[in-house]
Amino acid sequence: MLGVIGVGAIGAAIVAGLSEGCDAPAILLSPRNAKTVAELDATYPNVRVADSNQALVDQSDVVLLCVRPVDARRVMSDLTFRDQSLISVLAGVPIKALRELAPPVRDIVRAIPLPAVSARRGITPLYPATEPARSLFNRLGRVIEVADETVFDRYSAATATLAAHFLYMHQISNWLAAHGIAHTQAQHYVAAMFAELASSLKGRDPDFQELMHEHATPGGINELFCQVMGEEGAWKTVDAGLDRVWQALMDRQNGG
Q: Which residue ranges does the record assign to the Pyrroline-5-carboxylate reductase catalytic N-terminal domain (predicted)?
């Protein structure tokens, strides 16, 4: 039995991905976030809802922890674990801290699932990449086996750029709207542009510099835009943002 504590966006995506097809495992959900939990329970026959988090832990061989990092201590402090497997998707919470929160569990794995796991197209870093976590996430796409926790946290830092991707698209559509294009039409146009770019990455080994040159005709408008972004320091800002996120993760681990 797989028990999922914390059924937000990522928890729900994992449940959906695992529940598609004829080989769906039995899944037990924590009772909070009632609307999402009820929808998953009604959609998938392999899913049911636990009476409490403790009841979930008692009935599960594998516990998947998907709560917010700031809520981890509060959620886990009242739970009694046994010799079972714990998979955590909590950013910035190291194995050592998880062991302190969930004694006597020793089999603890950290994972960084992305939303594409819902369609079984995920690519999920695991540390350490042990069973049953490896098999679980291989069902949802493929696994990156990470041998060092510091390297794992670098992957975690990179995921902090996801929201900025949508803010970038928002900025472009707002510019169009400010220059006479209907807001909804601008949003649909920008969404279509980037959806096409994303689809072009499927089934290939991406070389982002090469792809940039494919889209930046010499003397053309894409080349000009890249030039302006560089002159304005946009690319250095990306490095600065990732460095700050990395430091925040390290501070969180060290109690800072």
A: 2-92
